Amino acid sequence: MRHLFLITALLCAPLPALAHKVVAGVFPSGDAIEGELGFSNGDMAAGTEVVVTGPDGAELGRTITDEDGFFLFVPTAPVAHTFRADLGAGHVAEVTMPAEEVAGILGAAAPATPEAEPPAAPAPAADAGASMAALAETRRRAIAEAVRNEIRPLRREIAAYREHNDLQTILGGIGYIVGLFGLGFYLAARRRLAG
């Protein structure tokens, strides 16, 4: 009889859900906004359309994620940009980049415009300085791109870690342990009373 009760209790115990959360993030990337979409279990949203809207809800543009769930969008106005994507099965990703960050991107892109039109007759010393500055800018961009590529997998791992080790999961595990001890004490007390 005791074994039947224990088996019934174990069968009625809830199983862990296999749910996952949506991962969505945006960050400055040179003169563009780079973002990622996916799930906390590591699955990324490849080939997903992302709709970009402004603070008034007007559409600013659209973009599509690559095979790794990343997308690029070049802003044209210094307003907050909201990125929204339907990932299916009721999962909707929505993330907003504040207007201040977008203005910073547009401000960083502004100096590149004057460089596009070099002076008509640069002096040799000024030409050497300009080429060194252009080389430094090229190196800076290459380093930034390399760092972004290295950070991408880390972001996924952090999101997966958060999904599996959040406070609710930890408290649930402690609750199961306390419940099993309680069940053990209950069965031991019944044996003492019966014997």
TrEMBL record:
Signal peptide: 1-19
Keywords, sorted A to Z: Membrane, Signal, Transmembrane, Transmembrane helix
Transmembrane segments: 170-189
The keyword Transmembrane is assigned to this record: yes
Domain of life of the native organism: Bacteria
Protein name as it appears in the record: Cobalt ABC transporter permease
Naturally occurring in which organism (per UniProt): Salipiger bermudensis (strain DSM 26914 / JCM 13377 / KCTC 12554 / HTCC2601)
